[in-house]
Specification:
Elements (H helix, E strand, L loop, with lengths): L3 H4 L4 H12 L3 E5 L3 H14 L3 E5 L1 H6 L1 H13 L4 E8 L2 H10 L4 E4 L6 H17 L3 E5 L23 H9 L4 E3 L18 H11 L4 E4 L7 H9 L4 E4 L1 H13 L5 H23 L6
Parallel strand pairs: 1-2, 1-8, 2-3, 3-4, 4-5, 5-6, 6-7, 7-8
Helix pairs in contact: 3-5, 3-12, 6-7, 11-12
The chain binds zinc ion.
The site of zinc ion has 4 residues, from loops.
Length: 288
């Protein structure tokens, strides 16, 4: 494989997000925990002719490695642009192993549990390593509070919004995608809902000036209006978890006595509908 500057144009995640940036829409990056989630979100993308990023957590890769290969097969056989992304990879050894052995298109290298200097230094080393394997890298600047499945909760650390200095530091650490902290949190928001600093988001986007793509984490409780405002401010990758998956849980709870196949089919149908609805909101429908 040649250098990253040559291979970066071939990277699926960056191609998808590059098109989104040019045409000013957002692409859903949907967390999948099982084969039904994967099937439903892929069906939504095909049906809406929308690009899609499939998100897996490191814990899923450990517990259910088969899902990685199933997702990679889905990416390969899809008739719309699709890529496979590893979210919040916090274990350096796992990142090295994944980059060398698994077919991910992009990895979020999350070293935010280290102090700032170590975070940047480790991010740069791991970004260069991922690039050698043709894998794009995302990092989080500032600190996004809260815990997600299997992800260390940094909530005891002081919440920090992304600063202009950090934007430059992470770009200098060779990342391809930046996830800023603008009041977004992992997990559920309080009763007043998300209180985001849209001005800071727009400022970060202006400062980035197309050098990297912008991702947003912590979309639980987002309304369509909040989602659209984040996209208008330059976000191209929208990580969604509970925002779309909750309907699957609800359906299963309410239909638990139905035969298994019927339960799975029904759950996939409601999840597909919900993902399609958010693809419309993000403006990615019809863009494939
Ligand atoms: Zn996240």
């Amino acid at each position: 494989m040649g250098s990253w500057s040559e291979s970066r144009g071939q990277n699926r995640t960056l191609q998808i997000l590059g098109s989104a940036a040019r045409e000013e829409y957002g692409v859903l990056a949907v967390v999948c925990y099982n084969i039904e989630h994967l099937t439903a979100v892929v069906r939504a993308a095909e049906s809406k002719r929308s690009p899609l990023i499939l998100l897996l957590f490191p814990s899923t890769v450990t517990q259910l490695p088969t899902l990685v290969w199933a997702a990679a097969a889905a990416v390969k056989s899809a008739t719309v642009p699709m890529s496979l992304h590893l979210d919040h990879a916090q274990d350096e050894a796992q990142i090295r192993e994944v980059a060398a052995t698994l077919p991910f298109d992009s990895i979020m290298v999350d070293m935010s549990h280290h102090d700032h200097g170590d975070n940047l230094a480790k991010t740069k080393v791991l970004a260069d390593l991922c690039h050698e394997h043709g894998i794009a890298v995302e990092a989080e600047s500032g600190r996004i509070n809260g815990g997600e499945d299997g992800i260390a909760d940094t909530g005891s650390l002081e919440a920090l919004f992304t600063t202009p200095e950090e934007v430059e530091e992470f770009i200098a650490a060779d990342v391809d995608l930046l996830a800023p902290s603008i009041g977004n949190i992992h997990g559920d928001y309080g009763p007043s809902g998300p209180q985001l600093d849209y001005q800071r988001l727009a400022d970060v986007n202006a400062q980035i000036a197309g050098r990297v793509g912008m991702a947003l984490h912590g979309t639980n409780d987002f309304t369509p209006e909040i989602m659209k405002r984040c996209i208008q401010s330059g976000t191209v990758k929208l990580n969604v978890n509970k925002l779309v998956l909750e309907c699957w849980n609800t359906y299963l709870r309410e239909h638990v006595h139905e035969p298994l196949m019927k339960l799975m089919d029904g759950g996939m149908a409601v999840l597909q509908d919900e993902v399609e609805r958010w693809m419309d909101i993000c403006g990615s429908s019809g863009k494939a």
